Amino acid sequence: MIDLENIKKTLTTAINEYFDQVTLPTNGLFVLGFSSSEVMGDWMGQNSNQEVGEVVINTLLPLLTQHHVNLAVQGCQHLNRALLVEREVADRRGYEIVSVVPQLHAGGAGQVAAYKAFKDPVEVEHIVAEGGMDIGDTQIGMHVKFVQIPVKTSVKEIGDAHTTFLTSRPKLIGGERAIYSWPE
Question: What Pfam families does the record tag this protein with (predicted)?
Fold first, then answer.
């Protein structure tokens, strides 16, 4: 039996530690890659669990809202890693909306939970997020803007799923004469 309260507590710790180190822009985008099967101790896609999905999304959304950051939830490979976002996020960022409604085994527990929790959810194929979290090695790097920077927290696992975190920064360009901040 999975301990849902422990998932909530661990996720809260992880996100708080992340935002102790990282400041994403107002209305920034945070991508969540998530496998409820991995949290349950199984191979990705083999034991999807809607309760776990709902605990993760319902814990994460208010924490991101406190930091004025929007959530994008990565779908599974059956949806080509499409992302669920609020329609206003897709419109503001100019993302092309695609037609699909996530299901437990085509999108995943996280997308289904977010679909229920969002005000006006839509799917998009591509995003450029400023940061994110991966629960279960789902590979979110393709959705985080270049240059990606790993963020370390004390939380290495949620349930049985490995966790990793990313933020990003603008590219540093130029050569030996370049400077990267404006002189005072």
Answer: DUF436
Instruction: Record the tokens describing residue 133, joined without a space.
Output: 């979290």
Tokens of 105: 């085994």
- Find out whether 70 and 30 touch, Cβ atoms under 8 Å: yes
Return d(Cα 106, Cα 78) in angstroms, integer. 5
Alpha helices in the chain (DSSP H): 4-21, 36-39, 50-66, 87-93, 109-117
From 103, 86, 104, select the one nearest 95 (Cα to Cα): 86
Whether residue 113 has pLDDT greater than 90 = yes
Task: Summarize pLDDT for 98-111 with one digit per residue, the tens.
Answer: 999 999 999 999 99
Scanning the structure block, which residue is given the tokens 């708080």?
A: 16
- Three-point CA angle 70, 46, 148, nearest 5°: 35
What is the model's pTM? 0.93
- For the chain, domains (ranges, CATH) are 4-168 (3.40.50.10360)
What is the rounded CA–CA span in Å between residue 151 and residue 133? Answer: 9
Cα distance between residue 122 and residue 114, in whole Å: 10
Q: Which pLDDT band, with edges at 50, 70 and 90, does 175 fall under?
A: confident
